[in-house]
Automatic annotation (TrEMBL):
Disordered as annotated region, ranges: 1-28
Organism: Medicago truncatula (Barrel medic)
Name used for this protein in its record: Defective in meristem silencing protein
Encoding gene per record: 25499765
Amino acid sequence: MSQSSHQEDLTEKILKQEDSFNDKNSESFKDQIIKQEGNFKGQIKKHEDNIEFLNSQSNRLTESVVDLQMSLGKYHSTNVTKSENGNGAFHTEEETVEQILKKENSAASIFCWIKANTQTSNLAFVKDAVGVVATLAKVESDDLSRILSEYVGLETMLAIVCSTNEGVKALEKYDPEGTVNSTGGLHGIGSSTGKKINGRFVVICLEDLRPFVGGFVENDPQKKLAIPKPRLPNGECPPGFLDYAVNMIHLDSNRLSFLTASGHGLRETLFYSLFSRLQIYKTRNEMMLALPCITDGALSLDGGMIRKCGIFALGSRKDVEVKFPLIAGESDVPPDYTEAEDVVRKLQWETSKLAADIQREQQLLDFRKAKSTSQACSGETTW
């Protein structure tokens, strides 16, 4: 073999060894990159899980704070009313009925008279009727009673509520020409007592109302509706929010146990129809600050009124002729007001700590993601 041929073989052998070495190094480098990617993914997943857990804890604490603040707000509004009244006197259901009876030529007045009269209480429309709107619920404070009654309006406060359409039909009879028969139904009873119903009157049929179907607040004795609390764009519940109007009315045991033929109660039928998601605030200023999350109107205990989104009721309050009665005795409030305030402060502190933890985890997550992306780009260039 010539010297030049031997040199070529030696060169070729060296090149093959170098290629083999480079291949092994390349494979080793790829393995390292893949391993690093796996580590980065694991770390990213860990931070994401931490953030999810911390967010759930934060949401739970926020809900607890809001619930306590709502209870404290109701307690405050009730106590303010009692201190203004001096001896804590309250407006009773009997007084509400007296207010209705003063409306002598109204259907509600005649109906209340019939209900109290044993000789006429067995009439078909009386049996089917649940009552007059103003007598079917109570509230915790006079301020709340006044603003809710004004919002509903006198005509609807005096509305007669029937369970079925049969009850509605029994209230009024018609001549063949379609005119109202003054001797039939409620008109006939009124005529026999020297009273005449002036103009139209409102009747509400429960079986025709679309009920709220979102369920009830768990373990709530009043069966309040499980409506999500309003949230501002920053995710927080508006300051001064007390509750939804439909959940701030109190039903006595006989009203609470009432069910329509389809199994629905007064809160999710009648009162949800009247109030929908009407929000209640302590003050007008707090109500106005909550505008971004008000969809179905809002009221404030100091007289503010938003009938629905974009429609404001300004001016002085009206004198309410018929209003909801007040709850007798103590309402469902925290047993120790000061202790409840301390709990709120502690929960708010814990919430702020969680917010800091969430921010720190988010920063670590962003760092890991950026490093992972940078490493991936570096690996692609090397390969």
